[in-house]
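re: that complex we talked abt at group meeting.

here r the seqs, copy pasted straight from the sheet so there may be weird spacing, ignore it
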Amino acid sequence: MPELRLGPFPVRTQRTRIEAYKSATRAAAQEVPAAFPICWFGEPAIRTAIAKACGDRLPLHEGQTFDYARPLEIDAEYWLSLALSEQADPPRLVVQGECRNPAGELYARMETLLRLVTPAMELSA
Amino acid sequence: MNGAVPKVGTRLPDRTVGPFTSADLAAYAEISGDTNPLHLDAALAQKIGLAAPPVHGMLLLAAFEPALQEWRPDLRVERLSGRFTQPVLEGEPVTLSARVVRAGEGEKPEILVRLMANGASRAPAIVGEASLVPREAP
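got the structure back, here u go
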């Protein structure tokens, strides 16, 4: 699969969602937790794009990186651009994301590694 | 930096999290949007050879953040990464451990902490790193 560039998608750091995230992860931070942006992958447009790239294979989350140029702010709007590429052996989808504010300033980069398996495969990772 | 620069080799106190229940996984799935059925469906997990659904790797990686903040509230996470090398299954307690592997000096020193999460398996479930920098004054 050639690299597929998607977005930018509008994403937010709603206080209520962050509170719910902190409750689910037992986090106590006053600021936006560093791992919170993974929740943006649940946004329908982003989720659909990743699901389409996975096809009928199950994605197993194999690795994740968040790299901040500056901390995210609570109740702020950002734009998330994604680049999806596939590796063959083993089958893996690499999702690279870049988060910027509406002025175009870089806030964070993220990389997600998804191992793609069929339900009949044994886990060997 | 408000506190002293930690010495390389400093170990953070180990922290036990979990065991995670199916309700915990469902709650995380709902807020994160990661509703991959593998984490929620025991029958599907069994199809790929797991005795129970695996805990979301991101739920485990996120568990390091409060540990780091408790250790050094004057620092914030600038980079967080993890490889999910072994599944941790629902019902398993998990031990989080961390060790300082690099400690820079200067005005904005970077503290690099190696992270490891161990479930019931002897092999680590997560191997990761966090890069910490001084928190900016409000």
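couple things i noticed - Chain A has two helices and five strands. The longest strand of chain A covers residues 106-117.
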